[in-house]
Amino acid sequence: MQRLADLWLGTDPAQRLRLRQTSLAMALMGLCAPVLHYCVEVAQGERGLALWTWTVLSVGGMVLVYACIRSGWSCGLRDPSMTAWQIAFAITSAAFGYALAGPMRGAVFPVLTLILMFGMFQLRPRAAYALSLFALVLFGAVMASMALRQPAHFPPEVEIGHFLMLACMLPAVAVLTARMSRIRQRLSQQRQELARALAQLQVIATRDELTGLPNRRQMQALMDQELLRSQRHRHDFCIAVLDLDHFKQVNDTHGHAAGDEALRRFAAAAQAALRATDVLARWGGEEFLVLLPDTGMPLARAGMERLREQIAALPIDLGNGRPVTLTVSIGLTGYRRGETLAQTLARADQWLYQAKAEGRNRTCIDADPGAAPMRVA
Q1: Active site residues
Q2: Which residues touch 335 (CB under 8 Å, ≥6 apart)?
Q3: Structural domain of residue 29, as residue ranges?
Q4: CB 351 within 8 A of CB 373
Q5: Sheet containing 328-334, strands listed edge to edge, beginning at the edge strand earlier in sequence
Q6: Helices marked H in the chain — which ranges?
Q7: Is 314 found in the same domain as 259?
Q8: Does 158 lie in the same domain as 285?
Q9: Per-residue pLDDT tens digits for 49-95
Q10: Do 110 and 222 belong together in one domain?
């Protein structure tokens, strides 16, 4: 059954929704055709060429609409579901069916109402009003024509009553459709506003407000994912802890606003020095953390040295006419099989403290398990 449904409706969710609606309209037309045949046979005793022509055109028209949507041709239209076209065609079919039904033509009115209800969840207010006016004018023309040609079967006073009934019913349906359209638009706007709010909350929850870098929570999640990948595929990754040297002096000398600007400039410069796959996060205060996925120690060491050298060579203009030069101390380590992330981070912190103890502006790494830290000045 699923294969048949995929064959009939396709696999694209939006396309399936359009084709479900069109299939329902086709089923309604398919049910109305034998009912009209019954009405004509009861009234006239036979079914003539006009009835069969109506049947072929009405059912064939709906099949053609289905083919346009199923083939994807309608995707180039403003309304890929062709709702207005389907409703206009069904109204036209119902109007000519009214002329053929004879004494039982009153059965067409509930069908007409059902046709217009199809547009409640798709049409815009202007289209709803236009289609209701189209239906009123077309049915009025058919009623007047039949009353003039066959007054015995279509008494003018009865047709006037039918027309007045439509003149009351169709505007009411149009108003309801327009109100439903406005409600749908408000709901759509509310969903969009909610989506924007959720996206903003996601940014707030995962990004550092000052630098725009991933925050500690987001970095922890990224490291957890990298740990799982490493355990599953047995590849290396490295972690580096960075600390800006003597940053308190920047705040004390230039002010906290200048210190914030220095952090932003450092974050941008450090990000530019890293590879696209590396992740730089603000770990807290003037401390940053770099995750180097799928990276061994030689490449990681080269990357951290490139970052350290570029930061040291970069004068940072804080906008007060007194540019400062920042340096950074780095503790770098690689993940070891069987240990926890906390142990890896603690070891990176140990090498960071070693780098600061030895004079700052340097990188300390552990090349091998159990080895003394290597220093890169």
Answers
A1: 286
A2: 227, 230, 236, 237, 238, 239, 344
A3: 2-199
A4: yes
A5: 279-284, 287-292, 238-244, 328-334, 363-365, 374-376
A6: 2-9, 13-44, 49-70, 83-101, 108-117, 125-149, 156-206, 216-233, 247-254, 256-273, 297-312, 341-357
A7: yes
A8: no
A9: 888 999 999 999 999 999 999 998 988 888 888 988 999 999 999 99
A10: no
pLDDT at 121 over 80: no
DSSP 318: -
Task: Give domain status of residue 235, yes or no.
Answer: yes
Asked if residue 349 is part of any domain, the answer here is: yes
Inter-residue contact 25 to 62 (CB < 8 Å): yes
Are both 179 and 37 inside the same structural domain? yes
User: Tens of pLDDT along 161-209?
Assistant: 999 999 998 888 888 888 888 888 888 888 888 888 887 777 677 889 8
Instruction: Measure the CA–CA gap between 276 and 294, rounded to whole angstroms.
Output: 13
Tell me which of 171, 199, 227 is where a domain ends.
199
Determine, yes or no, domain membership for 210. Answer: no
The domain total for the chain is 2
The reply to whether 233 and 189 lie within a common domain is: no
> Does residue 207 fall inside a structural domain?
no
Residues 132 and 223 in one domain: no
Structure token pair of residue 354: 């070693």
Tokens representing 228 are 């799982």
DSSP letters spanning 349-374: HHHHHHHHHTTSS-EEE--STTPPPE
**Mean pLDDT throughout 259-272?**
92
Burial class of residue 264, CB neighbours in 10 A (0-12, 13-18, 19+): middle
* 361: phi then psi, degrees, rounded to nearest 5: 50, 50
CATH number at residue 224: 3.30.70.270
pLDDT for 373 beyond 50:
no
